[in-house]
Amino acid sequence: MIKSIITRSPEETIEAAKKIGKLLNSGDIIAYIGGLGAGKTTFTRGLTLGIGLEDVVSSPTFALVNEYSADKLSIYHFDMYRIDNELDLESCGFFDYDFTNNVTVIEWSENIKNFLPSDIIRITLNTLDEFTREIILEGDERFAAAWD
């Protein structure tokens, strides 16, 4: 299933992501594709709100991973911008995380595409202008009505 939406502000991007966040289950892996400033971290803010988290979401660029915890689900928010190979993934502890019982969100997922399972949720964020984004979601049927 592929769905797309146009958002015209960061607030609209957050609202769109909240709808997806409400549908997430443990074990879901979200792979973002999008350039610098495309809205990947903003989208993650919406996902966390949709799950019911009130954490302050920030880019994990320098930390490589941020964790946001709740009773229902936790989110691992990775930034793979500087990761090029399996050794880099090992050294950042990527394989030590519990992907089965939590939600994983990966910025710059294209850098580790060979190490991701085939059943990931892909979210592509295309910058159309300063505030407008085209967001394309590729996932299973549970997301079909999220943006209708």
Q: What are the segments in which pLDDT stays under 50 over at least 5 consecutive residues?
A: none
Biggest beta-sheet profile: 7 strands, mixed
Strand order in the largest sheet: 1-7-6-2-5-4-3
Number of helices: 3
Q: Give the CA-CA distance, first to last residue.
A: 13 Å
| Helix/strand/pairing category | alpha/beta
Write down the overall mean pLDDT: 90
Beta-strand percentage range: 25-35%
Short structural description:
With 148 residues, this protein is an alpha/beta fold. Helix content is 20%, strand content 26%.
What report would you give on this structure?
Helices cover 20% and strands 26% of the residues. By secondary structure, it is α/β, with parallel strands linked by helices. A hairpin with a 6-residue loop joins strand 3 and strand 4. The model has no long low-confidence stretch (mean pLDDT 90).
Descriptive terms for the model:
148 residues; alpha/beta; 7 strands; 20% helix; 26% strand
List the helices and strands and how they pair.
Elements: E1 2-7, H1 10-21, E2 29-33, H2 40-51, E3 65-68, E4 75-79, H3 86-91, E5 103-107, E6 121-127, E7 133-138
Parallel strand pairs: 2-5, 2-6, 4-5
Antiparallel strand pairs: 1-7, 3-4, 6-7
